[in-house]
Amino acid sequence: MSVPITPAAGLRTLALLLAITQRAAAGSIDIPGELQACRALVDPAPRLLCFDALAVRHSPPRFAGRHGVTTEPFTIAGPQRLRYQSDGAIFVMYLRDGDGKVAQNIVLHGGGEDIYLIEKPGTYSLQVNGSETWRIWLEAP
Fold this sequence. Notes:
- The chain has 141 residues and is an alpha+beta fold.
- Helix content is 30%, strand content 37%.
- The two termini are 21 Å apart.
């Protein structure tokens, strides 16, 4: 069942999600506060979007490490969002296809978080080189 979102409710939800994302990026995550903010939303559709965003935001990473690592191969059946965070000044990641060829070179300068959309189904691995700890998630787009 589809629940329509009013423009005002959509803007409130967007503002809340932006605030959650900014707090998470800054490292000061208040999960109980974020849950209460979602719970306070009256309209069902924005409320669900808010809780879904929290579930994605706080899920454990698929891969995590420090410095250099090559992951085990993984297979995707459709597009997947590769979300990655780095705590160091240097983060370089190679998305390799099933033959080991570089499909995409990804660089994140100065730490933080970013995303890359893997569009094609297939088998991939990641070669990660970072100056500090890092985390990587595979998520539905």
